[in-house]
Automatic annotation (TrEMBL), chain A:
Domain ABC transmembrane type-2, residue spans: 61-291
Any Pfam family hit: ABC2_membrane
Keyword Membrane: yes
Name the UniProt record assigns to this protein: Transport permease protein
Sequence similarity: Belongs to the ABC-2 integral membrane protein family.
TrEMBL record, chain B:
Residue stretches spanning the membrane: 63-86, 98-120, 157-182, 188-209, 221-240, 274-295
Family per record: Belongs to the ABC-2 integral membrane protein family.
Keywords per UniProt: Antibiotic resistance, Cell membrane, Membrane, Transmembrane, Transmembrane helix, Transport
One BP annotation, GO: response to antibiotic
Keyword rRNA processing: no
Full protein name: Transport permease protein
Entry keyword Iron-sulfur: no
Topology term for the membrane: Multi-pass membrane protein
Signal peptide bounds: none
InterPro entries with a match to the protein in the record: ABC2_TM, ABC2_TM_bact-type, ABC_2_transport, Nod_factor_ABC_transporter
UniProtKB/TrEMBL annotation, chain C:
Membrane topology: Peripheral membrane protein
Localization annotation: Cell membrane
Chief location category: membrane
PROSITE patterns in UniProt: ABC_TRANSPORTER_1, ABC_TRANSPORTER_2
Family: Belongs to the ABC transporter superfamily.
GO molecular function, one term: ATP binding
Protein name as catalogued: ATP-binding cassette domain-containing protein
Residues annotated as domain ABC transporter: 6-236
GO cellular component: plasma membrane
Gene3D superfamilies: P-loop containing nucleotide triphosphate hydrolases
Source species taxonomy: Bacteria, Bacillati, Actinomycetota, Actinomycetes, Micrococcales
UniProt KW Acyltransferase keyword: no
Alphabetical GO biological process terms: response to antibiotic
C-alpha cells in the first residue's frame, strides 16, 4: 500500500502529495508558531509517510491480516451463536436476525480497538523501546506533528478494515439499508474520538503494568455496550451507566445506519463523539510535552 | 545420571578435589555443601520456576485484576446477559431444547469460559516472555551460563505457568459457583481440566516462541489465525454441531474443544460416550507431552549451538 | 607443575560447513591468566562458549576441571564465572536482586546469598546502586555488575569475553583494577580481547587466534621478541605516496609494512631508522617511534591489522 491509495488531495501546496489532506483540515495556518509554539511544524504528513512506507515495505501482510479478526467474530457469533439466538429486537423496535444485530456492533468495537491500540500500546512501544520518536523529534518535527500523524495513520487503517468488513456484511446480506454507506464515516469518527483520547491517557503511563489497565476499561465496554444483546436485559441503573460510556454510542450509531433505523436520535451519538474528539484533542495537546518531551 | 557418577568420572586433567581456596576472606557456601553442580542438576527446574514466579510478582496487581475481573465480566455478560436471549429463544428447560437448552446457557457456557481463560493466560505467559528470555532480556542465556540445563529451563517455565493456571482456574471456579453455574458435585475437576487445557496448548506455543529469533510479527499471526479461531470455534459459545459438518474437524484438533467438553462432563454431567471422554484426556496429555519434549529440544538446540 | 584446569586438544566447532574453531590445542594452569587474542570472527567467542560448557564441540577433546563439558555441563558451570561479551543482566530485576537470583541458579541458599550480594556490590563499587534498575546503569557499571554476578559462586575459573569492549578509558582502568585483584586472589582468568594493551596488561600467557587456528603462543613479551623488532617507526607520506615511499625505503630496518594511512618500519632503534629515512631524502609528514606491541605481532603473523 502506498500513499496513492489516499483520497484526492484537497489542495496541492509546496510539492506536498496526496497525504496532506487530513492534516490540513486540522491545521489553521495561524497555529504555526503562535498558538502552539514549538509543538507543531505543520508537517504531520512526514510522519504519516513514514508509517505508510513501513506498512508498504515490511508489514503489509500483518496489517491486512487484521481484517480477518472482526470477520471471524462475525462468522462465529453471527452465524454460530445466531442459530441459538434467532432474531433480536433492536432499541428502535425492529426485529432483525442475530447476525445483522451483532455485525454493526463488531464494526464499532473494531474501530475502538484499533484506534485505542494504535494510540496507546503502539505509541508506548515506539516511545519507550523503539526510540522512534526520539529521532523524529530531533528534526524540525514537533510533538503535535507526531501525534496527528499517528492518529491519521490509525484512522486510515481503521477505514481500510471497516471497508473490508462492510463488504463481508454485504456478501452475507447484513446491510439492511442504503444508509449503511454512512457507517464508514461513522467508524472514522468513532476511531478519531478514541484515538485522540488514548494518546492523552498514554502520556500518564510509565510501565507495562499500567498499560494493562487500559484493557480493563476496554473489556467491560466491549462486553456490555449492547454489543451481544440489547440493553433491555439490564436493570435501568446499569443501562444508564452503559449509555454514558462511549462505545455504546458507537454501537447504536452504526447499528442504526446498517439496519436502516435512521432518525434524528442518531445525531445525539454523533454529537457525543464530536465533543469527545474536541475534548480529546485539547487534552492530548496539553499533554504532548509530557508524552513526547520527557 | 546421578551427581555421584558425574563426579567420579573425570575425563582428564586435574582432579576436581584440589580446590585452591582464594587467599582473601571471601565467604563460601557452608562446609557441608554438596559437590559442585549436584543441586542444580537435581533441582534446576525449580530454580527456573522460582525466577518465573519472582518476575510474576511485578505483575501481581494485573494478574489479580485479570483473575477476578475476567470471570466476573464474562460470566455476567454471557452467562446472564446473553443467556436471557438464548434461553428465551430455545425454550430452556423443555425436553426438546437440545444440548444447550437442557441445562440453560449459563451452565453450558461457563466451563468453556473457564477453559478459554486458561488458554489465554497460558498464551500470555508463553509467548512474549519466552521470546524475551532468549532475546530482549536474555536471562535464559544467563541461566545456562550458570549450571542450569536448557531442558530444565523449559521445564521450570512449565512448572511456574502450571502454578499460575491452577490458581487462576480455582478463582474462576469459585465465581462459577457464585453464579450457580455448576450443578454437578464433581465440578471442581474442571479446575484441573482447565489447567491441563491451557498447558497442553501453551507448551506448543512455547515451543514455537522458542524458535523465534527475529520478531517479524509472527505472534500476530499466531493470535489471529490460531488462537482466535480456536477460541471461537471450539464449541465454546455454541455447540460444535451448530457448525456445518465439514467444519467439525476444527473442534477435533482443538485442545480447547477437548478441554471444554471434558469440563462440561465434570461441571454438569454432560452426556457423551465414555471413549470420547477418554479420548479428550488422552489428546490433551499427548499434546502436553509432545509440547514439552519439543520445547526442551528447541531450547537445548538454541542454547548449546 | 600442577595439573591444568583447562585442556583443549584439536578443539573444533563447525556450523554446517564453516569451521568457527578449527583445531585449537592449549592448556591453562590453575591461577594463570590466559588470553585469546584475535580479530572479530577469529573464533574466540565460540571457544569461550565451549569452555563455558554452553556450546557443544563438534570435534577434538576438551576437559574443564577434569570434566567433559558435553556430559558434565552443570558440574563444570557451577565452578565457572562467566562474563559474556554482551551483558545479559536481568533487566526486570534490580541491581542487588540480579546477584541473588543468579546465585539461586546455582542452588545457593538465601542465607549465603544476602551477605554475599552486599560483599560483591562493594567489590564492584556499586553499593549505592543496589536498588537501581539495570537500565539506569552506565556501560562500565553494567560490566562491573556482570563481573560481580559471575563471582557469586566463588568460581575457580573466570571466563571473560572482551570484558572492556565499548567502555571509555576510565571505565576500562577501573575494570582492569578489579580483575587484577581477582588474579591476586588466585582465580584463574581466561579472557578474549582484541585490544593489545589489555592483553599485555592482564595476560600471563596468550594465544593469537585467526580463522579458528592458533597463529602463535607465549607470554606477551616473548611473542613480541619472537615476531617483531624492539621498536617501530611509523611514518606518513600522505595516502597517495605511502606505497611508493615504502618501495624506496627497502633495506631500512628489519622489515617494512605498508598500511593504507602509514608505513611501519621495524627496527632495533627507531631513531636510527628515522635518521636513515631522512638521509635517503624523504620528508615524512609525521613520524613516531614506539615500542613494538602485540598489534605488530599480529600484523606480522597474518598480514592483517587486528582492529579492522
Amino acid at each position: 500500500m502506498t500513499e496513492r491509495s489516499w483520497p484526492a488531495p484537497s489542495r496541492a501546496e509546496q510539492g506536498a502529495t496526496a497525504e496532506s489532506i487530513d492534516t490540513d483540515a486540522v491545521r489553521p495556518r495561524v497555529q504555526r508558531g503562535i498558538l502552539l509554539p514549538s509543538l507543531y511544524a505543520g508537517n504531520a504528513r512526514a510522519v504519516m509517510h513514514r508509517g505508510w512506507l513501513v506498512v508498504a515495505k515490511t508489514n503489509w501482510l500483518i496489517v491486512l491480516s487484521g481484517l480477518f479478526e472482526p470477520i471471524l467474530y462475525l462468522l462465529a457469533m453471527g452465524i454460530g451463536l445466531g442459530s441459538l439466538v434467532g432474531t433480536v429486537t433492536t432499541s428502535t423496535g425492529a426485529e432483525v436476525p442475530y447476525a445483522a444485530f451483532i455485525a454493526p456492533a463488531l464494526l464499532a468495537v473494531a474501530a475502538m480497538n484499533g484506534a485505542v491500540y494504535d494510540s496507546t500500546w503502539n505509541v508506548f512501544f515506539k516511545m519507550n523501546y523503539g526510540k522512534l520518536y526520539q529521532g523524529m523529534l530531533a528534526t524540525s518535527l514537533g510533538p503535535l506533528d507526531v501525534a496527528l500523524g499517528e492518529i491519521m495513520l490509525a484512522l486510515a487503517r481503521g477505514l481500510l478494515y471497516a471497508g473490508g468488513f462492510m463488504l463481508v456484511m454485504q456478501a452475507f446480506g447484513l446491510n439492511l439499508s442504503l444508509w449503511a454507506l454512512l457507517a464508514l464515516p461513522a467508524v472514522v469518527l468513532i476511531a478519531f474520538a478514541f484515538a485522540s483520547f488514548g494518546m492523552a491517557i498514554t502520556s500518564y503511563m510509565k510501565t507495562f503494568q499500567q498499560m494493562d489497565w487500559i484493557n480493563f476499561i476496554m473489556l467491560p465496554m466491549f462486553l456490555f455496550s449492547a454489543t451481544f444483546y440489547p440493553l433491555s436485559v439490564y436493570p435501568v441503573a446499569i443501562q444508564w451507566l452503559i449509555q454514558a460510556m462511549p462505545l455504546w454510542h458507537g454501537v447504536e450509531l452504526v447499528r442504526g445506519l446498517t439496519t436502516g433505523a435512521v432518525g434524528p436520535h442518531l445525531w445525539w451519538h454523533v454529537l457525543y463523539y464530536v465533543v469527545m474528539v474536541l475534548v480529546g484533542l485539547t487534552f492530548t495537546t496539553r499533554r504532548l510535552r509530557a508524552l513526547f518531551l520527557r | 545420571m546421578s551427581s555421584d557418577d558425574a563426579m567420579s568420572t573425570p575425563a582428564s586433567g586435574a582432579p576436581p578435589a584440589d580446590r585452591d581456596v582464594p587467599a582473601t576472606e571471601r565467604s563460601s557456601p557452608s562446609q557441608s555443601a554438596p559437590p559442585p553442580g549436584a543441586l542444580p542438576r537435581r533441582f534446576g527446574s525449580w530454580y527456573v520456576a522460582e525466577h518465573w514466579f519472582r518476575t510474576m510478582r511485578a505483575y501481581l496487581q494485573t494478574m489479580l485484576m485479570t483473575g477476578i475481573g475476567t470471570p466476573l465480566l464474562y460470566l455476567y455478560a454471557l452467562g446472564v446477559g446473553l443467556a436471557t436471549l438464548v434461553d428465551q429463544n430455545i425454550g430452556a428447560g423443555s425436553a426438546d431444547a437440545g444440548a444447550v437448552g437442557a441445562v440453560g446457557y449459563l451452565v453450558f457456557v461457563a466451563p468453556a469460559l473457564l477453559c478459554s481463560s486458561a488458554v489465554t493466560t497460558a498464551v500470555d505467559e508463553l509467548t512474549y516472555p519466552v521470546i524475551a528470555g532468549f532475546k530482549w532480556n536474555p536471562f535464559f542465556i544467563g541461566m545456562h551460563a550458570a549450571p542450569l540445563q536448557p531442558r530444565q529451563i523449559a521445564d521450570g517455565i512449565v512448572i511456574a505457568v502450571s502454578g499460575r493456571l491452577l490458581a487462576q482456574s480455582t478463582l474462576y471456579y469459585l465465581f462459577m459457583l457464585l453464579f450457580g453455574a455448576v450443578p454437578s458435585g464433581l465440578g471442581f475437576l474442571a479446575i484441573v481440566i482447565a489447567t491441563l487445557t491451557g498447558l497442553s496448548f501453551g507448551v506448543l506455543v512455547m515451543a514455537y516462541s522458542a524458535t523465534i529469533e527475529q520478531d517479524k510479527g509472527q505472534m500476530n499471526y499466531v493470535m489471529r489465525f490460531v488462537v482466535l479461531p480456536m477460541t471461537l470455534f471450539s464449541g465454546t459459545f455454541f455447540p460444535l454441531e451448530t457448525l456445518p459438518v465439514g467444519l467439525h474437524w476444527l473442534g477435533w484438533i482443538s485442545p480447547l474443544w477437548h478441554g471444554t467438553e471434558l469440563a462440561r462432563v465434570a461441571s454438569y454431567g454432560y452426556q457423551e460416550p465414555l471413549w470420547l471422554t477418554v479420548a479428550h484426556v488422552a489428546y490433551l496429555l499427548v499434546l502436553l507431552a509432545a509440547g514439552v519434549a519439543l520445547a526442551r529440544r528447541i531450547t537445548t538446540r538454541r542454547l548449546t549451538r | 607443575m600442577p595439573a591444568p584446569v583447562i585442556t583443549a586438544v584439536d578443539l573444533v566447532k563447525k556450523y554446517k560447513d564453516f569451521a568457527a574453531v578449527d583445531g585449537l590445542s592449549f592448556e591453562v594452569a590453575p591461577g594463570e591468566s590466559f588470553g585469546l587474542l584475535g580479530p572479530n570472527g577469529a573464533g574466540k567467542s565460540t571457544t569461550m562458549r565451549m569452555v563455558g560448557a554452553v556450546s557443544t564441540r563438534t570435534g577434538g577433546g576438551l576437559g574443564i576441571l577434569g570434566l567433559d563439558p558435553n556430559t558434565h555441563g552443570p558440574e563444570i558451570r557451577s565452578q565457572l564465572g562467566v562474563v559474556p561479551q554482551a551483558d545479559n543482566l536481568d533487566a526486570e530485576l534490580r541491581v542487588r536482586d540480579n546477584l541473588i537470583v543468579y546465585g539461586r541458579y546455582f542452588g545457593l541458599p538465601y542465607s549465603y546469598l544476602r551477605p554475599k550480594a552486599d560483599e560483591l556490590l562493594a567489590f564492584a563499587q556499586l553499593e549505592d546502586k543496589a536498588k537501581s534498575r539495570v537500565d539506569d546503569l552506565s556501560g562500565g557499571m553494567k560490566r562491573r555488575l556482570t563481573i560481580a554476578r559471575a563471582l557469586v559462586n566463588n568460581p575457580r575459573i573466570m571466563l571473560l569475553d572482551e570484558p572492556t569492549t565499548g567502555l571509555d578509558p576510565q571505565a576500562r582502568h577501573v575494570l582492569w583494577d578489579r580483575l587484577f585483584r581477582l588474579k591476586e586472589q588466585g582465580t584463574t582468568l581466561v579472557l578474549t580481547t582484541h585490544y593489545m594493551d589489555e592483553a599485555e596488561q592482564l595476560c600471563d600467557r596468550l594465544i593469537v587466534v585467526d580463522k579458528g587456528r592458533i597463529m602463535a603462543e607465549g607470554t606477551p613479551a616473548s611473542l613480541i621478541r619472537e615476531h617483531s623488532s624492539r621498536e617501530v617507526l611509523e611514518v606518513r607520506f600522505g595516502s597517495a605516496r605511502n606505497a611508493e615511499a615504502a618501495e624506496a625505503l627497502k633495506g631500512v630496518g628489519d622489515r617494512i609494512e605498508v598500511l593504507p594511512d602509514r608505513v611501519l618500519v621495524y627496527a632495533h632503534s627507531g631513531e636510527a631508522a628515522l635518521a636513515r629515512v631522512t638521509e635517503l631524502g624523504f620528508e615524512p609528514m609525521t613520524s613516531l617511534v614506539r615500542r613494538s606491541s602485540l598489534e605488530d605481532v599480529f600484523l606480522r603473523l597474518t598480514g592483517r591489522s587486528l582492529i579492522d
